[in-house]
Design goal:
Blueprint lengths: L1 E2 L20 E5 L6 H5 L10 E6 H14 L4 E5 L8 H14 L4 E6 L1 H14 L2 E6 L11 E6 L2 E6 L5 E5 H4 L4 H12 L1 H15 L5 H21 L4 H21 L8 H11 L10 H25 L12 H8 L5 H8 L12 H4 L1 H9 L4 H10 L15 H8 L9 H4 L6 H5 L2
Parallel strand pairs: 2-9, 3-4, 3-5, 5-6, 6-9
Antiparallel strand pairs: 1-2, 7-8
Amino acid sequence: MKIDINQFLKPCSCGRTHEILVDDIIIESGAIKKLPEILSRERFADKKAIVMICDTNTYDVAGKQVEALVPGMKKVVLNPDNLHANEHGVGLCEEGLKETGEPDLMIAVGSGTIHDITRYHAYNKNIDFISVPTAASVDGFVSTVAAMTWNGCKVSITACSPVVVVADTDIFKAAPLRLTASGVSDLLGKYTALADWKIAHVLTGEYICEEICEMEYQALDSLKASLSGLERRDDRSYEDLMYGLLLSGLAMQMTGNSRPASGAEHHMSHLWEMEVINDYIDYYHGEKVGVGLVLASKIYHEAAKKMEAGEFSVKETMPVEEELIKTYFDRKPGMLESIEKENTPNLLDGVDSSKFMEKKEEIIEIIRAIPTAGEIMDMLNEVGGVNSLENLGFDAGYQEKTARLSPYVRARLTFMRALKFFDFYEEVISC
């Protein structure tokens, strides 16, 4: 399977010209063997100082093959224990790069953390990198930002997309099923991310591209049809999953930000990763997103029921809950200042509360398109995925606290944040 990049560069009905920063995406059995041919292309002809970034696990599953295919390449092999996309991980990689010498091309062999660390360094060094995914575990392979925990705060740091993705089915379908389930969770999270984008458009006129939305919905349809094949390691099912994950990344490139891929479900994951209401939890990004998706779907559908009943009122204004923010985000140096910056100005100042009544039916329709919490849990169960707060080691009380605080971690309007206007807010976030 080869993704035709040109199909995304045609004139768009949204009126914008979309930009794609990746030149080539190959998803097929034996794709890794094409590396020598790829490196012989004109773009890489003068690249002599090639460095592979991986960890000891990904070196074993794919790095050794890359090393054999690219003579003269140097490598930075990181210890995967306690390796995260943060200052520590970036620093470890930087130390390794001092030993290899300054690269003019990097090859990321791994999953989310390795890619975020690599794209961070590639951007800062103004060089290209090539992506070799070892698991279908995240949608960020072609992202233009590095999702990192910096000074204890979850932030998106400007970085760069790979110029080529070499996704070898033989490699990523052999990854532990838990990693695959994490990728399924991350992709399913687009249901609430897209709903949040659509509702923000309805409420504020925020830019939206319906073609990008439809592109992601098609990927979700393919994923649902492929779920049963993942456990039995079916090639086509894995290729459909990887295609959907990469398509989500391309959607972010086309939009210029993560709006089509990240909404309330990701904000919940970010909150848990910031460890202001919980201790460290050893779960993959996608696993946390999946639980966030279940919670968001549950709350959104409950809100839709209340709206449909018609017996509700909304506040005219909704200020930032400054005392709440101070109570929870003033626990690590610099975190409070970062959160306050994210919430200045107040996003809800741009919402005309009368729109909730005026656009009620439209909002309800958008929410109804999200699978129910039960349906999502069933899909995640099908791949052995994490699907509840209890799975993460949280008790039920974390739902209310998570719903209340998570909208403040990003300067992005979601329905979870807009719900603060409604008189039934307390009831639905605790449903």
